[in-house]
Amino acid sequence: MAIKVYKPTTPARRKTSIVSSSDITKTKPEKNLTIAKKRSAGRNSSGKITVRHRGGGAKRRIRLVDFKRVRFGDKAGVVAIEYDPGRTSRIALIQYEDGALSYILSANGLKVGDKVVSDEKKVAIEKGNRMPLEFIPSGIAVYNIEINPGRGGVMVRSAGSSAMIQAVEGKFAQLKMPSGEIRLVKKECMATVGQVSNPDHRLVRIGKAGRKRHMGIRPTVRGKAMNPCDHPHGGGEGRHPIGMKYPKTKWGKHALGVKTRKKNKWSNKMIIKRRKKRK
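Now predict its structure.
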């Protein structure tokens, strides 16, 4: 994969880039492995907007990705690598020996014809294989990690991300997360060996407003560009500052840099080292 830069035929095209689709081998998804996606445009059941700046966008279908992979011991072959509009990474279509098809998160470097397996005991340390953390050696990169045994992978699923196993001691495995946070996870939790596919996703430049509209994201107006009746930052003459000690949301709450994590969250005791603060 590589970043493809468009020719500057227009001012917007000059700044636009995409990830090359050379790794994609199949364009249409398996219909039996997709469901319709209802578009709510950020509105709740009463029709009121609860999430701003949503609406429109291209029509999509949700791909049913298997985050658990509970067919233990059954080998599967990679049939195709596909694009998923609902996530940043690629997905792999795999076929088991009995002919059953399934979608999984594709590991970086996984190709058509490769074999993958998921098991409760130790299997080969190869990209795409899934097993409990206690059987994976230290220093190996993993993704699609469970936080509770049997729940299915919920951590480290975005494009190009991976966590590093630092140690397995007692009942827990120590993981270094992509954010820099070091945390404990039960050693019975399953994880997939490798790095999530499509690592160049972070280098993409959207380039123009129209592309954002295709994604279903509507325009966002700055608070200081509004009137005082519409936003706490509004009003004033010319290019004025916000005029207050700290930035606020439209509804007057603290914004930018405020901690949003609950103080008494159950998993706090599992965190050995907090993630690095972004500058």
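The chain has a mean pLDDT of 93.
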